[in-house]
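C-alpha cells as discussed.
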C-alpha cells in the first residue's frame, strides 16, 4: 500500500502547485491600475485597426 501514499502526496503537490500558479496570476492581474488597462486596450485597438487597414482586400 506504499504506492497509495506516493500517489496521494503527488496529488497534494499538484494541487498546491496549481494554487501557487493561480495566486501568482491573480496578483499580477490585480496589479494593473485602471489607467494601465485602458491604455493597453487603446493600444490593442489601434494595432488591430492598423492591421485591418494594411491587410489586402480579398
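Sequence:
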Amino acid at each position: 500500500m506504499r504506492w497509495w501514499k506516493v500517489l496521494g502526496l503527488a496529488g497534494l503537490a499538484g494541487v498546491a502547485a496549481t494554487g501557487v500558479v493561480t495566486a501568482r496570476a491573480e496578483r499580477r492581474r490585480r496589479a494593473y491600475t485602471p489607467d494601465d488597462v485602458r491604455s493597453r486596450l487603446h493600444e490593442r485597438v489601434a494595432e488591430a485597426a492598423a492591421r485591418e487597414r494594411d491587410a489586402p482586400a480579398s
